[in-house]
Structures are given as C-alpha cells and as structure tokens.
C-alpha cells in the first residue's frame, strides 16, 4: 500500500502538511531571531527522513517543497537553512530532486538542499548521535513504524533548539503490539520494558481505553527521554469512529509547545465551546450537534477557581502555569476569566468596566491581573 500513498492528497495529508510547514515558519523565525542577537552561527536545519517524491499525483506539493518555498521567500531562512531530505525509494528521491530544481528561486539559497537515498536504521541513528547539530526541526513520517524509534528521536532532540514532529501510525502500532513477529520494532519505539508492560495492559481494555493507554505510554517515554513537552494531534477515519494515526510533537522548550499548540488548534476540524479538539475528524462536519454536548469551558472555570484559589496572577501567568497537558489555548483562558469576572466570581485589574471593547466584547490583555477568592472552608 505504501506505493499508493502519494497518489492523491487526502484532506488529512493536507492538514498534516499544513501543521508541519506552519510550525517550521514560526519556529525558524524565533530561532533565527535568537541566533542573530547572539551574533553566532546562523544556520538552522530541516531534516525529513521519509521525504517522498515532493508532490502527490494530483499535483499538490508535499512538505519538502513547501518548506523550501518558505525558505526562498524569507532572507533569514534562504541564507541559513540546511535542508536534508531522505527516502529509501530511489524513484522518490529522483523525482524529489527534479521538483526541487524546478522551484522558482531555488538557486538563491546559499546552501542547496541535499537529497539522499538511504534506509532509515541504526547507521543513520549513529550518525545523528555523533553530530553536534545546529537548531533542527526533525520530521519523521514513515509509512508504518519501521525505522521509527526513541533512539532516533533522541539522536536529534539531544541538541539545543532541536525539535521533532513524527507520524505515529496508531492503527498499525495497535495491531503490532500483540504481534510477536514485530516485537523488535515495538521495543524500539516504546522501550523494551514499557512495550512488554503495555502488551499486558491493553489485553483487557476497550478500544477507546486502549488508544489512551498506547498514546500515554509513547508520550511518557518521550518525556523520560528528555522531550519535556509532548503534544499529539489525532486523525480519525472517515466515519469519525476510530483514530487512524497521530502527529506527535516533541520539544524541550515551553515556547515551542505553545507555538505548536496554536498551530494544531487552528487545524482542528472542530471546537467545543471554542476549545480545539486537536484532531482532524472528517465526520464532524456531518455531526455538529454532537460536539455541543461537551462543555470544556465550564470545566475550565471550576479548575481555575480550585487551582488558583487565594492568588493574584496575570492572564499570561495563569495560562502558562495551567495549559500544559490540556487542550486549552490562550483565547479560552481570556474568555473564561472575563466571563468569571463579569459574574463576580473573581476580580480583575483593571476591571472589565475600564477595559476596551472590540465588537461589543470586553478585551483581556496578557498583563490583566485576576484575583481569585480563597477556598471555602469545609464545615
């Protein structure tokens, strides 16, 4: 089936490509700005180990070409980007190289993109482990799970400002965990001890709980490895009943997590009370009422009253302390805090009566302070 992957750009592939390319732009802007202030080596890198031919058969550009177009358009990227593409299929790399050469302005890049034809395995891992990498965005998008391992991710994540986005084929990994013939691949992905424990754990679980357990284990394994901030984005099947795969982001810095969270939020196919689902679900357009039954903003209000009782903090401080591991974004916090203030549950400084309005809605700046009442004593 892998040979048909690029025949047509499905909507989920469009979303995946959008997430990676939009994050690259935001990440590269931040890193080049930091490097410029430090007046040091200005190089940044983009590495894609399963790059494909560059276009889908319908003519749509895949991630490598979009990344290069962004680099050509931005002088700071054009002069400093090291682009490294690989695919084990020689036909793919040959086509990709031709597509790259045809990009308008490609000759203006100071460092021309490199295209390689290699199987992703231990040799590539060893190479990255031995390199002292410049800031690198690492994209790993295998067809299944062969070549994907914790060791591979860590070989890049180990260095400063290096981050990883990888494709997690949930369907095939879910099938692979109980299959002894692919134990080596599962052990490489989760770690041998974690994989063994997970195989036992999922035997008695429902499909939904099984998905949660598998996702939780891969995220915990990444955190233990040093990727402190992990964020998954789910892709559902056409009926919206099962998760097919996930795009998982790993970073060591909270700013990277925040930027990616905003990117993934915008690419979510639905929102519940304005809270992004962090998934692409083709069925949500046919089931809009289903998602109104969940009311996550109501849950957020209760959490804030409980966790910040007796404290005075700015909106930015509240968001920074609370949002990790939750799907709320800054706008959700601003909306809820303003609503709570107007209801008299908390106080704002400056108060909402003195803050400006946009289209009739009271604004809430990052520096706006909120005071929460102390917890009520239990009698």
Counted up, domains total 2
Largest sheet: 8 strands, mixed
Shape estimate: globular
Q: Fill in the CATH topology of the largest domain.
A: Rossmann fold
| Unreliable residue stretches | 1-8, 285-293
Summarize it:
By secondary structure, the chain is α/β, with parallel strands linked by helices. It has helices at residues 11-38, 63-73, 75-78, 90-101, 122-130, 150-157, 170-176, 183-190, 192-201, 207-225, 254-267, 296-307, 315-322, 330-342; strands at residues 44-48, 81-86, 114-116, 136-140, 163-168, 229-236, 243-251, 271-272, 275-276, 279-280, 312-314, 347-349, 357-358, 361-362, 369-371. It is 43% helix and 16% strand.
Word description of this protein:
- With 379 residues, the protein is of the alpha/beta class.
- It has two domains: 2-276, Rossmann fold, CATH 3.40.50; 295-371, Orthogonal Bundle (Arc Repressor Mutant, subunit A), CATH 1.10.10.
- 43% of the residues lie in helices and 16% in strands.
- The strands form four sheets. Strands 3-2-1-4-5-7-6-10 form an eight-stranded mixed β-sheet, with helices on both faces.
- The longest helix has 28 residues, at 11-38.
- It starts with 10 loop residues before the first helix and ends in an 8-residue tail after the last strand.
Q: Main attributes?
A:
globular, Arc Repressor Mutant, subunit A, 379 residues, 8-stranded mixed β-sheet, 3-stranded antiparallel β-sheet, alpha/beta, 14 helices, Rossmann fold
């Amino acid at each position: 089936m892998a040979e048909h992957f690029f025949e047509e750009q499905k909507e989920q592939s469009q979303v995946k490509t959008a997430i990676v390319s939009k994050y690259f732009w935001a990440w590269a802007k931040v890193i080049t700005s930091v490097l410029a202030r430090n007046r040091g080596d200005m190089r940044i890198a983009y590495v894609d180990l399963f790059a494909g031919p560059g276009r889908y058969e319908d003519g749509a550009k895949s991630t490598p070409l979009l990344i290069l177009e962004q680099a050509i358009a931005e002088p700071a990227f054009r002069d400093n980007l090291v682009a490294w593409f690989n695919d084990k299929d020689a036909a793919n790399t040959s086509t990709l190289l031709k597509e790259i050469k045809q990009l308008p302005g490609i000759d203006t890049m100071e460092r021309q993109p490199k295209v390689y034809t290699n199987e992703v395995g231990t040799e590539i891992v060893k190479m990255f482990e031995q390199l002292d990498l410049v800031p690198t965005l690492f994209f790993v998008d295998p067809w299944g799970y062969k070549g994907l391992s914790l060791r591979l991710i860590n070989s890049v994540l180990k260095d400063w400002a290096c981050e990883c986005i990888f494709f997690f084929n949930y369907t095939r990994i879910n099938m692979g965990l109980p299959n002894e013939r692919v134990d080596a691949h599962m052990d490489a992905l989760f770690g041998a001890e974690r994989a063994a424990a997970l195989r036992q754990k999922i035997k008695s679980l429902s499909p939904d709980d099984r998905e949660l357990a598998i996702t939780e284990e891969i995220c915990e394994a990444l955190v233990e490895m040093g990727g402190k901030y992990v964020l998954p984005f789910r892709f559902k099947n056409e009926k919206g009943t099962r998760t097919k795969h996930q795009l998982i982001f790993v970073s060591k810095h909270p700013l990277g997590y925040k930027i990616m969270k905003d990117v993934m939020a915008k690419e979510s196919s639905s929102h519940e009370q304005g809270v992004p689902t962090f998934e692409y679900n083709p069925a949500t357009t046919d089931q809009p009422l289903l998602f109104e039954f969940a009311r996550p903003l109501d849950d957020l209000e209760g959490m804030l009253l409980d966790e910040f009782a007796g404290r005075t903090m700015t909106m930015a401080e509240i968001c920074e302390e609370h949002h990790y591991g939750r799907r709320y974004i800054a706008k959700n916090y601003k909306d809820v805090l303003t609503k709570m203030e107007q209801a008299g549950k908390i106080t704002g400084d400056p108060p909402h009566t003195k803050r400006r309005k946009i289209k009739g809605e009271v604004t809430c700046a990052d520096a706006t302070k909120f005071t929460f009442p102390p917890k009520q004593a239990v009698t």
